[in-house]
């Protein structure tokens, strides 16, 4: 990957890092395929390690594979600082993507975090607590099905034995993928020692909706994450010839699946939630064969937890009537970010601003939410996305807004580490 640097300063560094990443895992669609523990992921992890080394940040990798680059110029080691009650302020996000995802979901937070460290150093800031930049592994769960796997295992919210047994579309287990990436699956587990270093976590992220466009503001502070989860519906059937099998003799697994897709839209509409069936696996998958098995994955979310739970219960009952086996793959209840931290960051952003930074909730899951659930004071900053689109190549953020995000993040880090 190119190590080109144009001009100087943190914003030039941001631009150079951004162009470094442009070609990694780019798909024909113009979007990105950067799945956990693949060759693309390896390239991104090496890139992250290189950026930490370039800055003299001490790189550590926790028991899950999440990467941390530590900046501490104070007396003793980071652990000495932590033992003395100076826990780190951490910022970062993830570098993996959904299938054909946008360039910003994840990388914007990592690149901005590194650029924010540069900016603080340019300004001669000397943090009173360690600062760390992090790259969480497998945030999207695109390969193995469970989103935020890296932060969930780290914090004890995902059993390592369960994680190791997850399989990808080719039948490769998480354990095998770890081994192929040079990691020992036996090492996978919660890492309370690393977690104990973290005093606060701030994740900068591209906005995944239109609120900031409509409000005319470049940066917002987060308040909460909607409850959300993923469920697997397995519909049984019987393979047979598409031309010679009478309709009344068929057991077509696709019918139950079709009912799930339409039911999800209908029930979610009635209950004021959102529900999506975005992934399907059809067996045997021949145009001229009646499906013997269909697996569909339901993603359900909403502002009102009770309504999300009721939506899924209704769809589960309906699926079971169609013969489905329904398995919950993940569930994240309503997550509230640390209100004091969010308010503090908002005050920082409002210092020189004409209009107050908006405070937004989101329907998207994030590692910051998993850390918040684990008791780490956490919050997020959102950067305006003019298309309002995410998990698609159309996701976007203008350079000026990205730079505003870096400045905002640096101001927040400065306040949190010197205030
Ligand atoms: C992850 O981005 C999710 O919210 O699905
Ligand atoms: Mn995402
Ligand atoms: Mn993300
Ligand atoms: Mn996400």
Please provide a written account of the structure.
With 419 residues, the chain is an alpha/beta fold. It has two domains: 10-226 and 334-418, Aminopeptidase (3-Layer(aba) Sandwich), CATH 3.40.630; 228-332, Alpha-Beta Plaits (2-Layer Sandwich). The protein has 14 helices and 13 strands. The strands form two sheets. Strands 1, 2, 3, 4, 5, 6, 11, 12 and 13 form a nine-stranded mixed sheet that branches. Strands 8-9-7-10 form a four-stranded antiparallel sheet, with helices on one face. α4 links the parallel β3 and β4. Glyoxylic acid is lined by residues 140, 147, 364-365.
What are the key terms here?
single chain; 419 residues; four-stranded antiparallel sheet; Aminopeptidase; alpha/beta; binds manganese (II) ion; disordered N terminus; Alpha-Beta Plaits; hydrolase activity
Class per helix and strand makeup: alpha/beta
The number of helical runs is 14
Mean pLDDT: 96
CATH superfamily caption of the largest domain = Zn peptidases
Please write out the topology:
Elements: H1 10-21, H2 39-55, E1 58-61, E2 67-71, H3 78-83, E3 88-94, H4 107-122, E4 131-136, H5 149-154, H6 160-165, H7 174-180, H8 192-196, E5 198-206, H9 211-215, E6 219-225, E7 228-236, H10 253-271, E8 274-283, E9 293-301, H11 305-321, E10 325-332, E11 335-336, H12 339-350, E12 359-362, H13 367-373, E13 378-383, H14 399-418
Parallel strand pairs: 3-4, 3-5, 5-13, 6-12
Antiparallel strand pairs: 1-2, 2-4, 6-11, 6-13, 7-9, 7-10, 8-9
Helix pairs in contact: 1-4, 4-14, 10-11, 12-14
The structure holds glyoxylic acid (GLV) and manganese (II) ion (MN) (3 copies).
Family: Belongs to the peptidase M20 family.
Protein name: Zn-dependent hydrolase
GO molecular function, one term: hydrolase activity
């Amino acid at each position: 990957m190119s190590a080109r640097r144009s001009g100087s300063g943190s914003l030039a560094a941001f631009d150079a890092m951004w162009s470094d990443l442009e070609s990694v895992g780019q798909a024909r669609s113009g979007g990105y395929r950067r799945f956990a523990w693949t060759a693309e992921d390896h390239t991104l992890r090496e890139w992250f390690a290189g950026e930490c080394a370039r800055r003299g940040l001490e790189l550590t990798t926790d028991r899950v594979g999440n990467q941390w680059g530590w900046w501490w110029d104070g007396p003793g080691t980071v652990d000495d600082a932590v033992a003395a009650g100076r826990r780190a302020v951490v910022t970062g996000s993830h570098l993996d993507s959904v299938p054909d995802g946008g360039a910003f979901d994840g990388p914007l937070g990592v690149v901005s975090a590194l650029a924010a460290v540069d900016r603080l150093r340019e300004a001669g800031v000397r943090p009173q607590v360690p600062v760390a930049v992090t790259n969480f592994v497998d945030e999207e769960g695109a390969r193995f099905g469970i989103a935020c796997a890296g932060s969930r295992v780290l914090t004890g919210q995902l059993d390592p034995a369960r994680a190791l047994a997850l399989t990808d579309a080719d039948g490769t287990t998480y354990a095998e993928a770890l081994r192929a990436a040079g990691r020992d699956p036996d090492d996978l587990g919660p890492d309370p020692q690393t977690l104990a270093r973290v005093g606060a976590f701030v994740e900068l992220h591209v906005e995944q909706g239109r609120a900031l466009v409509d409000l005319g503001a470049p940066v917002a502070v987060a308040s909460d994450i909607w409850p959300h989860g993923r469920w697997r519906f397995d519909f049984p059937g019987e393979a047979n010839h598409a031309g010679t099998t009478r309709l009344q003799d068929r057991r077509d697994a696709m019918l139950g699946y079709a009912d799930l897709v339409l039911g999800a839209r209908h029930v979610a509409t009635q209950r004021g939630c959102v529900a999506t069936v975005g992934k399907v696996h059809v067996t045997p998958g021949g145009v001229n064969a009646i499906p013997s098995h269909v697996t569909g994955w339901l993603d359900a979310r909403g502002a009102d937890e009770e309504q999300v739970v009721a939506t899924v219960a209704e769809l589960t009952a309906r699926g079971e009537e169609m013969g489905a086996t329904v398995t919950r793959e993940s569930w994240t209840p309503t997550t509230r970010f640390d209100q004091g931290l969010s308010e503090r960051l908002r005050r920082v952003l409002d210092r020189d601003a004409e209009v107050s930074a908006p405070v937004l909730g989101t329907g998207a899951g994030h590692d910051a939410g998993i850390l918040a659930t684990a008791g780490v004071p956490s919050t997020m900053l959102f950067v305006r996305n003019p298309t309002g689109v995410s998990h698609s190549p159309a996701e976007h953020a203008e350079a000026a807004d990205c730079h505003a995000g870096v400045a905002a993040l640096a101001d927040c880090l400065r306040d949190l580490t010197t205030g």
